[in-house]
């Protein structure tokens, strides 16, 4: 595979000993100008055909790992989950209460036997009412809404 | 996949001895300083410095293991680390604010004891357009190179990231070397009136922070070499870059107020 060598033999004064090396003495002939221009043109044409990623050996250094390949453990599960379309793999959202009376309490998912629940009683409430919710028994917040604990299924 | 993790986004850390060794070594550092000052014996201080260094190495090594090798640094955990670094740098800003307060307190209304003028009578100050100006250029350039390194990492350009971060570290060390030379050649000492006190305490703590920042960047250089970072997850590097920019900004304030206005 041909590639443009960027080594020193492209410098006119070194390739051709008849060209004086002091800049003041150098006269650039028209043919040399054409040679230089064609070299540039060839380089552009060849490179555009091969694609920017392979432009020349000097630029083949996108050597860092793909972030998905690089990740491991829980972080990777999170990334995979997001890639699959689940923007909320750890279920961090604020739940909306249902009608919430004793016969129809709001279900709060948990992996354990009890979970801390915070009720935002009304929209402009300045504090959250926190309470422990045990498995089996429903609980009522002071604002009147009821909660119960339900088994959670893993989302990640 | 089942795990004992509990399916939440957070990192509940394992038991670790480093908080205990850290507090013991901090005690040895402070008490050792006092013992050195008053009894001219640095042994406890040296022990404290060693213990602190070992604690730091092992604590941060463990964080690297948890984040990079175990994958425990989810998005939520990284956000927590970001806030932690922001709060820490803010506390450092307040720390330097106090030294600038001290400087302006003494220099805006100079005592009769220093000659009612600033700089005090007899103090030969540094020419701000010599080494201090070079140091300013060095730190500004290092701010640019560290930003270059960040962009290189985000574009998965490993070799450029190594080069630019390497240049950043070199510039940091160059600054330290020049500043050490300035300290050696200074015509005044910390004991030379309130000028010496404010100058050396402010620039001295800044120099210490340059050394800390350079060390942090060097660790990042090593981690980059070992491919710990990915294009989207490299918070350790970002934290080092934030700290480095902070160090640069403090120097700019030091240069303008102490070296230039105060000279």
UniProtKB/TrEMBL annotation, chain A:
Gene3D superfamilies: Cytochrome c oxidase, subunit Vb (2.60.11.10). One of its GO terms (biological process) is mitochondrial electron transport, cytochrome c to oxygen. Transmembrane segments: none annotated. It holds the Pfam family COX5B. Keywords: Metal-binding, Zinc. Zn(2+) binds at residues 119, 121, 141, 143. GO terms for cellular component: mitochondrial envelope; respiratory chain complex IV. It comes from the Eukaryota. Residues 1-22 are annotated as: Disordered. InterPro entries: Cyt_c_oxidase_su5b, Cyt_c_oxidase_su5b_sf. Residues 1-19 have a biased composition (Polar residues). GO terms for molecular function: metal ion binding. The keyword Metal-binding applies. This is Mitochondrial cytochrome c oxidase subunit Vb. The lineage of its organism: Eukaryota, Metazoa, Ecdysozoa, Arthropoda, Crustacea.
Automatic annotation (TrEMBL), chain B:
GO terms for cellular component: membrane; mitochondrion. The keyword Protease does not apply. GO terms for molecular function: cytochrome-c oxidase activity. It is a multi-pass membrane protein. CDD domains: Cyt_c_Oxidase_III. Pfam families: COX3. SUPFAM superfamilies: Cytochrome c oxidase subunit III-like. Gene3D superfamilies: 1.10.287.70, Cytochrome c oxidase, subunit III, four-helix bundle (1.20.120.80). It is found in: Membrane. Residues 6-263 form the Heme-copper oxidase subunit III family profile domain. InterPro entries: Cyt_c/ubiquinol_Oxase_su3 (IPR024791), Cyt_c_oxase_su3_dom (IPR033945), Cyt_c_oxidase-like_su3 (IPR000298), Cyt_c_oxidase_su3-like_sf (IPR035973), Cyt_c_oxidase_su3_a-hlx (IPR013833). One of its GO terms (biological process) is mitochondrial electron transport, cytochrome c to oxygen. Signal peptide: none annotated. Keywords: Membrane, Mitochondrion, Translocase, Transmembrane, Transmembrane helix. Belongs to the cytochrome c oxidase subunit 3 family. This is Cytochrome c oxidase subunit 3. It comes from Penaeus vannamei (Whiteleg shrimp). The gene is COX3.
């Amino acid at each position: 595979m041909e590639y443009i060598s960027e080594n020193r033999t492209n410098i006119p004064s070194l390739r051709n000993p008849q060209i004086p090396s002091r800049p003041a003495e150098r006269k650039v002939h028209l043919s040399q100008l054409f040679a230089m221009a064609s070299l540039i043109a060839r380089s552009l044409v060849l490179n555009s055909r091969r694609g920017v990623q392979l432009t020349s050996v000097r630029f083949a250094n996108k050597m860092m790992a793909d972030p998905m390949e690089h990740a491991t453990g829980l972080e990777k599960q999170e990334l995979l989950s997001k890639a699959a379309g689940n923007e909320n793999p750890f279920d961090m959202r604020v739940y909306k209460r249902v009608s919430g009376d004793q016969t129809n309490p709001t279900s709060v998912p948990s992996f354990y036997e009890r979970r801390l629940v915070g009720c935002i009683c009304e929209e402009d409430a300045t504090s959250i009412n926190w309470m422990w919710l045990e498995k089996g028994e429903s609980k009522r917040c002071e604002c009147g809404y009821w909660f119960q604990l339900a088994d959670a299924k893993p989302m990640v | 996949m089942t795990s004992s993790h509990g399916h939440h986004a957070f990192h509940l850390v394992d038991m670790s001895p480093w908080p205990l060794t850290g507090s013991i070594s901090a005690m040895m550092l402070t008490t050792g300083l006092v013992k050195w000052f008053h009894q001219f014996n640095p042994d406890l201080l040296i022990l404290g410095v060693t213990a602190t260094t070992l604690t730091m190495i092992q604590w941060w090594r463990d964080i690297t293991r948890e984040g990079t090798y175990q994958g425990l640094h989810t998005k939520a955990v990284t956000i927590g680390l970001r806030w932690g670094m922001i709060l820490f740098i803010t506390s450092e800003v307040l720390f330097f604010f106090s030294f600038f307060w001290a400087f302006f307190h003494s220099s805006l209304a100079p005592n009769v004891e220093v000659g009612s003028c600033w700089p005090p009578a007899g103090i030969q100050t540094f020419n701000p357009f010599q080494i201090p100006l070079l140091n300013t250029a060095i730190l500004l350039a290092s701010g640019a190179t560290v930003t270059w390194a960040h962009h290189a990492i985000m574009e998965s350009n490993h070799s450029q990231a190594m080069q630019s971060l390497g240049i950043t570290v070199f510039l940091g060390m160059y600054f330290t070397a020049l500043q050490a030379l300035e300290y050696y050649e200074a015509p005044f000492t910390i004991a030379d009136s309130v000028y010496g006190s404010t100058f050396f305490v402010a620039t001295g703590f800044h120099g210490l922070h340059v050394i800390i920042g350079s060390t942090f960047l060097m660790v990042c250089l090593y981690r980059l070499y070992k491919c710990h970072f990915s294009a989207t997850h490299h918070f350790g590097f970002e934290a080092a870059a934030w700290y480095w920019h902070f160090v640069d900004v403090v120097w700019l304030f030091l240069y303008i107020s102490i070296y230039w206005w105060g000279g």
